[in-house]
Amino acid sequence: MKIGIIGAGAVGSIIAREFSRLPENTVQLTLMARSTRDGFTILEQGVKTHHEIKVHDVNTVTGPFDIIFIATKTPALSVLQGKIRDLTHADTEIIYALNGMGYDDVFNSGIPGVVYISGQQNDDYIEHFVNQKIILPEQKYKYTDELIALIDNNPSVNFELLKSSNFNKMRYEKLLINVGINSVTALSKNTSKIFEDERMVKLTRQLLDESIEVVNQYNTDGIVIEHGFTDYAMDMYFSYPRSMGTSMYYDVMANRATEFKYIQQFIFDMKQDHSIKTPVLDTVVTLLQAYEKK
Ligand SMILES: NC(=O)C1=CN([C@@H]2O[C@H](COP(=O)(O)OP(=O)(O)OC[C@H]3O[C@@H](n4cnc5c(N)ncnc54)[C@H](OP(=O)(O)O)[C@@H]3O)[C@@H](O)[C@H]2O)C=CC1
Ligand SMILES: O=C(CO)[C@H](O)[C@H](O)COP(=O)(O)O
After folding, report:
1. Where do the structural domains in the chain lie, given as residue ranges?
2. pTM, whole model, 2 decimals?
3. Fewest 10 Å CB contacts: which of 29, 99, 103, 216?
């Protein structure tokens, strides 16, 4: 089976590191990014390890692959639209290893994923904080089912690639997790340290409460997010290392475009009338929109 991973940052490198432990006679792996390099270094629990997994310039690669993981940032999706034809065949399964919602139709055979991998790409190494898990919708997959079986039968691969019949709810929950922490870390330009401040906790809770209300009132998937989800999300944030940022925080710190269009803006756009007052969400979206104006 031929697997391509586009994106060799915090998420793509962890996927590549784990899948590279699958037997070569079952999986041929190609890791791609915007530029070529001979490998990458991951810092985990204070230890740096170099992995000699070649990163190819995506523009020099031709497929076709049976499975492609897209682990870029969402602004790259439009750039990849032209390239993807060279990398796929009629049955290629394209898995979005991305945060956010609203981009599923960019590729015809796109499969959404809920990504729980937390890390940060620095200049010469990638810091991995917690989790290595991707959840997919419960359905039959020609190639991905085979990959899941290979992972399950290889104890050296420490990666959870799961299917869940509860996928739609999990996806909204991950979106809400990102709306909460990504907004406040990006806009304060600070890491999870901000949750030492009671006012930041209160603000984040209000943002989550408003966003949950929007999701519950307007989603068309029959999803109900329990109001206790705010406590669950806050407990998750409190458990993060204080030095851990979010992908949106790192984007803002590096003065890059953010993924707000498919995260905060997606929830904001769900509102079809003014029956729900969402002052914190509205302010967050306005500030992130203003940040994008270059
Ligand atoms: N970081 C995190 O903790 C988490 C991130 N996510 C989500 O996962 C996705 C990936 O995030 P993350 O790994 O942090 O991102 P990074 O910024 O660390 O890495 C992005 C990678 O995509 C590559 N890339 C960007 N544009 C293109 C392009 N046009 N063609 C080919 N490659 C491209 C970059 O290439 P190059 O290296 O050459 O610059 C880089 O390797 C995002 O949607 C993010 O929100 C989800 C959960 C956690
Ligand atoms: O859920 C996570 C940890 O696994 C996320 O990494 C965390 O909530 C921050 O968001 P991002 O996905 O943008 O890094």
Report:
1. 2-165, 168-292
2. 0.93
3. 216
